[in-house]
C-alpha cells in the first residue's frame, strides 16, 4: 500500500454527450477542494467511410472549428463559475489511447470521465471506452454514470476481495475521504471459492483500519458472503447509501493485459461514481517496460 495521493491536475474527456457533460460538476467539486488544474480534452476520430467524397483534412478542419468553439465555451463557463484554472485541447486519434496518452504526457493525477454503460457481449469482449481508459491509465480514473448527479461523496464503499492488490487503493480512498469528510464503509466480499479464508480477510481489513486510524478517517467495516463479487459490491453500496465506490482494476500484474470482470462490471453497471485504481505492481511493470498499456486502439 502506498501512503499518499494528491490531486493537482485533472483530465476530463468531453464528447458533448449527456454523460460527459454530467461529469463537469463532479470535476469542479474535486478541483475546488484540491485547487487542481482542469484540462478538458476532446478526441476527434473521423472515418473516411462516413464521408467518402471528402478529404479527411476538409472534414477535420470544419469539425475542429465547431468543436473548438464549443469546447472553449464549456471551459469559459467553468472558469467563470468556479474561478479555477481550466484549459482545453482537441486532438485526433483513437479515443482510449489518446486520453491515456494525454494524461501521461501532462502528468495528470486523475481522469474524470462519463460512462454510458454497456452490457452483454459488448461488455465482456470489447468493453466501453471508459473501461478501456481504466485498464490503460497509469493514474486513477473516476467514471461517472450519466444518471449520477450527486457530487458530494459523503460515503465511500471500499470492497476488499481475495485479489493480491485489493488494498492498493487505500491512499486514493484516504484522499477522497479527507477531501469530502466522508465515511468509508470497508466491506470484505468473500465469494464461494474463498469461504475458508475469512481470517485472511480480517487481517487485510485490519491493516486498512490501522491506516485510516493514523490518517483520521472515519470508517465502519464488515464481511459479507456471496457468489458474485460485483453484485455483492453494488448491492452493499446501495444498502449503505454510498456516493462513491473504490475498486482495483484487477489486472494481472505481470502483463497488465488480463482484466477482472468484477471491476469491469462494477464500472459499467454502477449508478454512482466509481474510482478505479491500477495495482502498484502493474504500474511498476509499465514504467519498466516503457509504459506498456493494453487496449491501445
Structure description:
The chain is an alpha/beta fold and about 300 residues long. It has a single domain, classed as 3-Layer(aba) Sandwich (Rossmann fold), CATH 3.40.50.12370. About 45% of the residues lie in helices and about 20% in strands. It is built from 10 helices and 10 strands. It has a 10-stranded mixed β-sheet with strand order 3-2-1-4-5-10-9-6-7-8, with helices on both faces. The protein starts with 8 loop residues before the first strand and ends in a 9-residue tail after the last helix. Mean pLDDT is about 85; it is low at about 45-55, about 115-125, about 250-260 and about 290-295.
**Assembly level:** single chain
Instruction: Show unreliable segments.
Output: 47-54, 117-127, 251-259, 291-297
Q: Report the portion of residues in β strands.
A: 15-25%
Mean pLDDT figure: 83
Give the count of helical stretches: 10
Give a count of the beta strands, DSSP E runs of length 2 or more. Answer: 10
Largest sheet properties: 10 strands, mixed
The CATH topology turns out to be Rossmann fold
Q: Judging from the principal axes of the Cα atoms, what is the shape?
A: globular
At CATH level 2, the architecture is 3-Layer(aba) Sandwich
Q: In whole angstroms, how far apart are the ends?
A: 31 Å
- What is the rounded Rg? 19 Å
SSE layout:
Blueprint: E1 9-13, H1 18-34, E2 37-44, H2 56-82, E3 86-92, H3 95-105, E4 110-115, H4 120-125, H5 129-136, E5 141-145, E6 155-160, H6 170-180, E7 183-190, H7 198-215, E8 219-225, H8 229-239, E9 244-248, H9 261-269, E10 274-277, H10 280-288
Parallel strand pairs: 1-2, 1-4, 2-3, 4-5, 6-7, 6-9, 7-8, 9-10
Antiparallel strand pairs: 5-10
Helix pairs in contact: 3-5, 8-9
